[in-house]
Amino acid sequence: MPTPHEKPWRSLVVIAFGIMMVALDGTIVAVANPAIGASLGATLAELQWVTHGYLLGLAVCLITAGKLADRLGHRKLYLVGVAGFTLSSVAIGLSSGTGMLIGFRVVQGVFGAALMPASLGMLRAAFPGHLLNRALGVFSGLIGTSAAAGPIVGGLLVSTLGWQAAFFVNLPVGVVAVALAVRFLPANRPTDQSSSFDLLGVALLTISTFGVVLALVLAPEHGWTSSATLVPGLVGLAFGVAFVLWQLRAPEPLMPMSLFRSVPVSVGTVVMLVMALAMFGSMFFLTFYVQGVHGLSALETGLQLLPLTALLAVGPPLASRLFDRFGLRWPILGGLVSSAIAMFGMSTLGVDGGTGLLPLWLTLLGAGLGVVMVGATDAVIGNAPVSLAGVASGMQQTLLQLGGSLGTAILGAVVSGQVGGNLAAQLTAAGAPAPTATQVAEWQTVVAQGGAVIPEGTAPALAEAIKHASNVTFVDGMSLAFTVAGVALTLGAAISALLKRGEHTGEAVVHV
Q1: Which residues fall within 8 angstroms of residue 145, CB to CB, at 6 or more apart?
Q2: Which of 54, 275, 281, 327 pairs as cysteine with 105 (C-beta 3.0–4.6 A)?
Q3: Alpha helices in 127-162 (DSSP H)
Q4: Contact (CB, 8 A) for 290 and 349
């Protein structure tokens, strides 16, 4: 086991450059999505893949990357991750089509996965035990601040330089991160040269996750009962079952099923998924709402979302005091209830009258999710034995990223389905000619992004009526999606009542 070196805080500052780049990119894209859609002519499903293609690449590789870091050395994998993340960011900005952009987003996610467990491994090696929790608290605050700055930085860059700048900004940061890492990070030896990789488990989990999410993305376009949806969905579920069965018998499983014998770990898993679904899903459609329906600029959108992103930055460090005083159950329950109230509140947002009570709902949502994020992490990692702390950490990050991917896919399917069912009636009621089924299918994607299709030569009064009808249709779909998210958070709150502080196995447990 590597011993703590003499300048641990310097190492934290150096590592922060790389990990903050990943955190910033996770939220900066939310503001750039409408501009990407307009510039490249992307469909709703393609824009979803811009978001969850990255998240999926990250989630699928996190646990495997953790094992690679143990075998090859954390510093080496960190450098590979930073360099790869930087180069793939440049490639994304140079993309001329959505297929190329999405492909490089997946690659970017893979390199992001190399960064995260390697960074945590170096921190654990750099800091002595009595300083580690304090270091991780500072580290989490830096990540939260970066994520909170994403919409504002993204809005400024997109408004002034175009959507490509949201990715090109990673180039100078990445260059600085590599230079500092080479100069200041101490070399560390591999900590697990003899362990083998569960390659079959990696393959099964990758195929399972990809198949399920692909089915969720294709369902709005092809229907839930079409072969295009059912085939990948059933394949994903089948490989998921195979993954679980293999993990029960694998000599060195990728994700030991013994972790889930702990009630707090199992409940924390569900809560983490629900929390991520609500957080990423809400941010995805709120950008379309404030830009498409209310006409705000990208920068104004970032400022509009500030109550949510700011509380996600400052909330988690403060939440630890709640858990010290009240344990896990009540703060998580309260956070989920606050988040559910916010979702139900946002389901009442309308087309007219500005954004109304949105700042209040975003404040409740940010405060609630900030507490839940820390509590669910504590439930998963704090109740795992130290021998499985690395696996539990990778699993927690995987749940966060996968939950975000599922959130955009599930809520996107709800919005798109609602738009497809109501668009014709709303346009007819507005006085527009009744659209054909083919036209509804073609216009559905545009309206589901908060836009409208107005035929050339349409009279101004009729054009305004079509725009209003399209906005009403989109907002109705968004309201239903937020209601679904609110119900999911409510169910998560009921499940969280099972949580307790839990009794550890007697081994030292690292809380992150």
Answers
A1: 20, 313
A2: 54
A3: 129-161
A4: no
Per-residue pLDDT band for 305 (boundaries 50, 70, 90) equals confident
Cα(426)–Cα(434) distance, integer angstroms: 10
Which region among 2-11, 54-63, 218-227, 412-421 has the lowest average model confidence (pLDDT)?
2-11
Averaged over 126-155, what is the pLDDT? 67
Residues 6+ apart with CB under 8 A from 331: 319, 322, 323, 371, 375
* Each residue's pLDDT tens digit, 97-107: 888 999 999 99
Mean pLDDT of the chain: 80
Q: Report which of 233, 226, 173, 227 is spatially closest to residue 207, judged by C-alpha positions.
A: 233
| CB-CB contact of 165 with 158 (8 Å) | yes
**Cα–Cα dist 314/319, whole Å:** 9
Report the distance separating Cα 259 and Cα 261, nearest Å.
6
Each residue of 387-405: b (16+ CB within 10 Å) or e?
ebbbbbbbbbbbbbbbbbb
Nearest to 276 by CA among 138, 462, 408, 113: 408
Contact 43, 378 (CB under 8 A): no
Judged on CB neighbours under 10 Å (0-12, 13-18, 19+), 178 is middle
Q: How confident is the model at residue 129 (pLDDT cuts 50, 70, 90)?
A: low
- The end-to-end CA distance of the chain, in Å, is 19
Contact 195, 71 (CB under 8 A): yes
Q: Is the pTM higher than 0.90?
A: no
Determine contact, residues 511/382, Cβ cutoff 8 Å: yes
Q: What is the rounded CA–CA span in Å between residue 96 and residue 338?
A: 42
Q: Are 453 and 470 in contact (CB under 8 A)?
A: yes
| pLDDT number for residue 217 | 66
- Cα three-residue angle 213-215-219, rounded to 5 degrees: 125
Locate tokens 């013994």: which residue?
Answer: 258
Tell me the per-residue pLDDT of 454-470, one tens digit each, with 9 for 90 and over: 877 778 888 888 888 88
Other beta carbons less than 10 A from residue 188's beta carbon: 19
How far is C-alpha 361 from the chain's CA centre?
20
CA dihedral 7, 8, 12, 18 (to 10 degrees): 70
* Between residues 112 and 282, the one the model is more confident about: 112
Residue 93: closest CA among 148, 35, 44, 144: 35
313 vs 320: CA distance, rounded Å: 13
* Whole-number pLDDT of residue 87: 95
Longest dimension (CA), the chain: 75
Residue 385 phi/psi, 5° resolution? -65, 155
What average pLDDT does the segment 401-410 reach? 76
